[in-house]
Amino acid sequence: MLEDILSVIWKESKSQFRVRGSRLRFVGLIFSPFLLGTIFPISWGPDWLHQLPPLAVATITSVIIVAVMVPEAIAGERERHTLETLLASRLPDRAILVGKLLVPLAVGCGLAILANLCSVVVVNIAYWQGEFLFFSAPIALGSLALSFLMALLTAGAGVFVSLKAATAQEAAQILTFGILIPPMLLQIVPLLFRDQMTHFLDTVNGPQLLLIVLAVLVVLDVLVLLAAVTRFRRARLIAV
Amino acid sequence: MRDLAIQLDNLTRDFETVRAVDGLSLEVPAGTIFGFLGPNGAGKTTTIRLLLGLLEPSDGQARVLGYDPCTQSQEIRTRTGALLEHSGVYEHLSARDNLEFYARAYRLPTAEREARIRDLLEQMGLWERCTDQAGTWSKGMQQKLALARALLHRPSLVLLDEPTAGLDVPSAAAVREDLAELAEREGTTVFLTTHNMAEAERLCSRVAVIRHGRLVAIGSPDELRARSGGGARVEVSGRGFTEQALALLRARPEVAGVALQNSHLEIDLRHDAATAPLVSLLVGAGAEVEEVRRGKASLEDVFMTLMQEEEQDA
């Protein structure tokens, strides 16, 4: 199984950056996180390393990269009429799926880490205090975990969207739009449940809240990925 | 008992509004090139998908290389090469990378992988441009690349879904030539769907004809000729082929069909009937005969006859 996954990863790592227009798009994609990892730390100063925004930068980076790359890997393959031949090979369904998801996840999470490391460099250069400044442990670990789990959730959702959408572009648009819905809901929920939220937030501190969020994400990831594995089966993938 | 590469028993596949494959039963002996003929929408592609385990049958059973596509499709795909409706070539990758990926997928050892890719690309005349993006190649070259990919892991069975469809005449001829050579050299069973009768006639030792998912006929091209009217055809050139002369011909028991085009008369015979009495009959009826040629009916004619019979039966 591992060898099969590595074969798919080999192909995906070559394919993702060679499809027409993908290099330009990718340059644009990696430019944004580095911009975020430069502008905001300069305006926040050393506080940047101990507040929540780095979590947001890492998460947005990984999620957007995955939201663009997963549709390319799945819907793009179908759009270019290469999926059926791939399914006719000996590669197991799961190896194909895992290989196709791992490359976007690795690129997304890798760029999220780089964006945050960029912000560390920027803060240290702009606000040098005689010693090297780094994220507090909850922020460092939290941004790693949150960006990975959110990227995984996006990847799982991307499988379903990619299998429904007619083209990779349509799938990426739907997925990107879908990513905007949870933040919008998060703005509405406190208005509807203000008292309960205030009471709940009084009883937990920041790290505890982060752990709760991560735990919920782990459960969601498992559910979405299980559903994606179930859906990504040859007999259900061939268009009639 | 001879080895069978494919064995279908009442194989059926229903979709929401249509029965694509309807009680198909046939056997494909190992080591042969088997033609699966039928018009568009006959169920050829669905049958290939069923053989590969990409679709599940609604009813019936299949054995491919001794394995059940429903429960052992992985075993089948490991031993099978496929060139499907679309070539499946990654156009943004080089030809070499296309083969490299599938060689990895089929777990060819690194050293063998290199040699095998070079060998196949050289045989197909593609080696010189193996680092070009496959998307810059002509359709014929891409189809050859897809054929090389199907044969890469030395499969016991190759399933080809209209491998020359959409190609120009020289490209189609080149693909056919490569296919025949490779199949002979590698001893592979080839299951070939096509609606190109000349292609089937040239390549296949056995053919099956399907329509609306049902088997219409199966056998060697000669057996099918015999079944659909005797197989022999007499072509007569000359003048004065009157309606009266044609009616006399049609009345003969050994004549299966008569067609007149300009000054060219085609007479399809039942079994191995003699030609001389028919020529005498024509001369006696006032025709001026200049040339008589005896040959076989083309598979295309046999196919059309079978289709007409099937339509009448329906």
Task: Walk me through the structure.
The complex is a heterodimer of chains A (240) and B (314). Chain A has helices spanning 2-15, 22-44, 53-79, 83-87, 93-126, 137-164, 168-192, 194-203, 206-231, 234-237. Chain A is mostly helical and 240 residues long. Chain A has one domain (2-185, 218-237). Chain A is globular. Chain B is an alpha/beta fold. Chain B has 2 domains: 4-224, 3-Layer(aba) Sandwich (Rossmann fold); 229-296, Alpha-Beta Plaits (2-Layer Sandwich). Helix content of chain B is 37%, strand content 29%. A 6-stranded mixed sheet of chain B has the order 5-6-7-3-8-9, sandwiched between helices. Chain B has a 4-stranded antiparallel sheet with strand order 11-12-10-13, covered by helices on one side. A 3-stranded antiparallel sheet of chain B has the order 2-1-4, covered by helices on one side. In chain B, β11 and β12 form a beta hairpin. In chain B, α3 crosses α4 and α5 runs parallel beside α6 (169-186). The chains are: A mainly alpha (240), B alpha/beta (314). Chains A and B meet through α1 and α4 of A and α2 and α3 of B.
Helix-strand layout with pairing:
The complex is a heterodimer of chains A (240) and B (314).
Chain A: H1 2-15, H2 22-44, H3 53-79, H4 83-87, H5 93-126, H6 137-164, H7 168-192, H8 194-203, H9 206-231, H10 234-237
Chain B: E1 4-14, E2 19-29, E3 33-37, H1 44-51, E4 59-64, H2 73-78, E5 80-83, H3 95-105, H4 110-123, H5 139-151, E6 157-161, H6 169-186, E7 189-194, H7 197-203, E8 206-211, E9 214-219, H8 221-227, E10 232-239, H9 243-251, E11 255-261, E12 264-269, H10 276-284, E13 288-296, H11 299-313
Parallel strand pairs in B: 3-7, 3-8, 5-6, 6-7
Antiparallel strand pairs in B: 1-2, 1-4, 8-9, 10-12, 10-13, 11-12
Helix pairs in contact in B: 3-4, 5-6
